[in-house]
Amino acid sequence: MALFLKLDLMRVPFNPLVRLHADRQEALGSALLDVLRSGWFVLGPQVARFEQDFAAYCGLPHCVGVGNGSDALMIALRALDVGPGDRVVTVANAAAYSTLAILAVGAQPLYIDIDPERLLLAEDALDAALALRPKALIATHLYGQLCAIESIAARCRAAGVALIEDCAQAHGARRNGRMAGAFGDIGCYSFYPTKNLGALGDGGALVSADPSLAARIRALRQYGWSDKYRIDQAGGGNSRLDELQAAVLNVELPLLDARNARRRDIGRRYLDGLAHPEIRPLARGGGDDVFHLFVVRCTRRDVLRAHLAERGVQTELHYPIADHLQPGLPRIDPAPRLARTEQACAEVLSLPCHPALSDAEVDHVIEACNAFRR
């Protein structure tokens, strides 16, 4: 009987990529074949089309495709002349992507704590950080939630601090009619395959309303060239969105809003159904949230994760180690006080949340959570 029950158990994978693309295999295959037949594989018509369409989707005049989201952050910092001796405000609970970009340009991260309800940049810590005269601030829209970006943007403008939005988990998130990436100087996107808008490999983009910044970004993504083999912009490198990935994104972009709507349906189903007192979903932001991840907190996180695994539910940790505690990163002296960040890293657990999930699978996850022993 035990063997029968184990075989009959519903399995809910976290991100089944084959399943996520099953309804678009023919369209994707056709798009890739078009690129192969064109003979144009780098910075061709597919990239130009995607840049134009994604800029329009974001409500901005400029989009520049790059190799990945991490490069997008690094290029944004360089475009804003951030370098050695500068400090950049960021949070420490987002897998060190912003930290690595800051260190790559020779600057120093200036960490501030997060709010305990949504695990986003804490407004109550912002003024003290801005008073230290940083060169820039990276506002991370984590888990598909927009942070308090209107207030953050206003404070950055008043302080003369450049604002970069990390939108890698917020494709399609809006507030008051404006899209993620449209509030700061530059918005940075990743198109990693598991993102709300994902490619079949790496990809990234930067969006901006500023034509001079967009021109600098275009130069920086390709060696600093103003023309072929002429370097007019220092700090350039090689980070280009390729034609194959752009072709994939051109298939995926028109589907983004509908797929985000399904993510919201799943998120609401979780919020309505989760009833265990130890399992605390984040306070979600309403209609602007695109539920890239559905994250809960639990003080017995590892025990809960094992319990869910026994019931066929795959989970992930986003993210278990705060940036300032990463063993391979430089230590900051004095060490930042980030109690809420460190507590969150010990408690967060991500439940499956993707548009291919069935209602039955979501209900199975809910039932498994609610059955967690008290």
Automatic annotation (TrEMBL):
PANTHER family: 3-OXO-GLUCOSE-6-PHOSPHATE:GLUTAMATE AMINOTRANSFERASE, TRANSAMINASE. Keywords: Pyridoxal phosphate. GO terms for molecular function: pyridoxal phosphate binding; transaminase activity. The active site is at K195 (proton acceptor). This is dTDP-4-amino-4,6-dideoxygalactose transaminase. It comes from Aquimonas voraii. The modification N6-(pyridoxal phosphate)lysine is found at K195. Signal peptide: none annotated. Belongs to the DegT/DnrJ/EryC1 family. GO terms for biological process: polysaccharide biosynthetic process. CDD domains: AHBA_syn (cd00616).
